[in-house]
Write a structure and sequence with these properties.
2 domains; Nucleotidyltransferase, domain 5; four-stranded antiparallel beta sheet; five-stranded mixed beta sheet; alpha/beta
């Protein structure tokens, strides 16, 4: 994840990160989240060279519910990346939550293809996150807009997966209620880093519930988990992991830019799968 940090440091904005002059083949990861859509591009060595996100409510409970809007946003992010990097993006990979099959999986593929890119792969979100962070053993807790999900890995294989409907949306509802403002204004306030300390006081009980959900998942798994990795845009508060540390005995780890972990893993994982296919052909 150091490469993400370096990419951010070279950017003047928080929502668009890019390095000009990329050469050679690239891989693209598209993450259709509950509260945002993220597109990330990696070069032939797996280094991220572009990342951008856009607020969106096109997905609910892992399902694409606003198809045309999702396509429009992915097209705009694609154009943004092409302009920044000076290349044409022709392929991309997407991801789905665990247990998503059939038409739901196909919908993610259709969004990518409707944005005029060939869909090279659809991978599992937790496996993508684990791949990006090089996790072989431990738990990945992905806190998105709608759910808190956990995936536990042993020797690089996912052996346990669960989720519950508590996420960033619940945080927004609490903030809006506390301030007495409409939900969209509550969401805007929550995302404003200038209000982070005040926001954290309001949403701390929600984060504690997420920690309790995670603790229950680990107990249900029935084995000791030494490390818990927190990812997802909803974890982007400085004191977030401290709440988990009070409930869970495992080491709690959070990357510096948790919102980019899954899309980075999507790009990297799809590049590896493509390479394996080419070598076996």
């Amino acid at each position: 994840m150091n490469a993400i940090h370096e990419l951010v440091m070279q950017s003047s904005g928080e929502q668009e990160l890019n390095i000009k002059g990329v050469k050679g083949p690239v891989s693209v990861g598209v993450d259709l989240g509950t509260s945002s859509i993220v597109l990330i591009v990696t070069d032939a060595k797996g280094n991220p060279v572009f990342a951008a996100s856009r607020d969106a409510d096109c997905v609910k409970d892992g399902l694409v519910v606003k198809y045309l809007e999702a396509v429009r946003i992915v097209r705009e992010l694609k154009a943004q990346a092409e302009e920044a990097l000076g290349i044409e993006l022709t392929e991309a990979a997407g991801a789905i939550p665990p247990g998503t099959y059939g038409n739901n999986k196909r919908a993610v593929q259709n969004v990518i293809e409707s944005a005029e890119m060939e869909c090279t792969a659809i991978v599992d979100e937790p496996e993508a996150a684990a791949y990006a962070m090089k996790i072989r053993d431990g738990a990945v807790v992905d806190i998105g807009g709608g759910t808190t999900g956990i995936s536990i890995f042993e020797k690089g294989k996912m052996v346990f997966s669960e989720d519950e409907p508590t996420g960033g949306t619940q945080m927004t509802l609490v903030v809006a209620g506390a301030l007495g403002v409409p939900i969209p204004e509550g969401e805007k306030y929550k995302r404003d880093h200038h209000h982070e300390k005040d926001t954290f006081v309001m949403i701390r009980p929600v984060i504690d519930k997420m920690a309790a959900i995670t603790q229950n998942f680990i107990e249900r798994y029935g084995k000791k988990v030494k490390k818990v990795y927190l990812v997802g845009g909803a974890t982007n508060f400085e004191e977030f992991e401290s709440v988990f540390e009070k409930r869970i005995t495992a080491q709690i780890l959070k990357p510096e830019y948790p919102e980019f972990v899954t899309p980075l893993g999507i790009a990297l994982k799809s590049a590896e799968q493509k390479k394996e296919c080419e070598e076996s052909a």
